[in-house]
Amino acid sequence: MLLNKKISVWYFIREIRSQILFISVFALSVALLDLLPGFRKISLPLNIPALLGTAVSLLLAFRTSQSYERWWEARIVWGAIVNDSRTFTRLVIQFLPDGEDQKIKEFAERQIIWTYALGESLRKQPFSEKVQEYLDTRGINASNIPNTLLDAHSKQVKEMASSKVLSDFQQMQLNDTIGRLCDSMGKCERLKNTVFPRSYSILLHILIYVFAAILPFGLDDSQLLVEIAVTILIPVMFIAIEKTSIIMQDPFENTPVDTPVTSLAQTIEINIKQMTGEQHVPAKKENPLYYEM
Q1: Average pLDDT for residues 32-39, to the nearest whole number?
Q2: How is the chain split into domains, by residue range?
Q3: How many CB atoms lie within 10 A of CB 38?
Q4: Which of 58, 146, 161, 256 has the smallest set of CB atoms within 10 Å of its CB?
């Protein structure tokens, strides 16, 4: 996630450099083509490229809005995960009787590992050493590790309810919180697996290139440098906006504009360990970069 610091402009330029090069060559070729005697006679009213440019702008506005909505939904879901992780730990501490410190520690550690495992699985990364060590120690091997860890939560709650350590009301409260965590996990998986329609990008690209093709024929040929600059600049701006929306539409792709799942997992770990009275609570280091993951 981008922070309120100096943003690296070169990151965005690197992301769209091929598109900038292609649209620049395309626009320059069309602008020079307009200078040939056979094409010089062709003149379009400026209203035509202006109308097409307006249509592209509206489509880009919709695309950017939808992409930001996906990114913001992911951030809201992870905000709920932070809150529910704290709530779950607080309920466990409150409901378990004195002398059950080991069980509290088991719940707390499992919840911490769940947050890291969920973020890493959404980004399709290999599990970190912390998560892998926990899984190996307990012999956990499943296709969906975060869901398996929630199942372990539910199983332990059921066992404690059967042995009368928890009342029916307490069991219901804990299961309700586990259910909310499961809902959040499902929302993240939906955002990860639902692809933005490719046809929309193709339509936008076609309109942008058509706009770049007809724009020189609506400009005054007497100002060659201005015509070439405008023919390149406006389509490049459209391409840059469209590329920005593409980067933002997938919030779990391990990029600087991602939802900061690792940073949020670290926050959850610190909070839970403080709540359970752990002696060794990791300090969250200040991030020197313009983004956090």
Answers
A1: 69
A2: 23-275
A3: 7
A4: 58
Q: Is the pLDDT of residue 131 over 90?
A: yes
- CA end-to-end span of the chain: 6
Read off the pLDDT of residues 137-158 as tens digits, 9 standing for 90 and up: 998 888 899 999 999 999 999 9
At 118, list the tokens: 């969920």
Beta carbons within 10 angstroms of residue 293's beta carbon: 17
> When comparing pLDDT for 291 and 116, which is higher?
116
**Can you give the pTM of this predicted structure?**
0.84
